[in-house]
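Quick review question:
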């Protein structure tokens, strides 16, 4: 798939998942606790955004003729080397990758209140920005 097409699809998915998290944020800001179904939707949206970002990172490295690491952490470290993201941003990316791994593999140990705070304070928007903006 050409990078331009890939970029368009990642942007589309990012907008959809961001809209879902915006709805969840609106619920949280009323002081209501999201239902279990809504909680699962929040986790799924975060997972999709993170996985979409990992895929884009790999596509960017491939397009630059760089080796594509298997590890998501290593992919984002390589993006720092390429000047696509900053060293400061890498800390946020590592946290996002860690949350995605926890959602997928360690789902019994997720503190949903921390996730709610992440959504309430819109700390997912840096991922959406990365996915929407062409690099």
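Suggested answer, residue by residue:
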């Amino acid at each position: 798939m050409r990078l331009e097409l890939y970029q368009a699809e990642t942007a589309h998915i990012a907008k959809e998942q961001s809209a879902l998290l915006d709805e969840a944020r609106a619920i949280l800001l009323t002081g209501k606790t999201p239902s279990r179904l809504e909680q699962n939707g929040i986790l799924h949206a975060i997972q999709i955004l993170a996985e979409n970002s990992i895929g884009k990172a790999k596509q960017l490295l491939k397009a630059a003729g760089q080796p594509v690491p298997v590890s998501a952490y290593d992919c984002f470290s390589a993006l720092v080397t390429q000047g696509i993201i900053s060293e400061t941003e890498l800390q946020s990316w590592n946290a996002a990758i860690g949350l995605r791994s926890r959602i997928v593999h360690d789902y019994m140990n997720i503190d949903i209140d921390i996730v709610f705070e992440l959504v309430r304070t819109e700390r997912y928007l840096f991922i959406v920005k990365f996915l929407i903006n062409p690099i």
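Why it works: The chain has one domain: 3-130. The chain has six helices and no strands.
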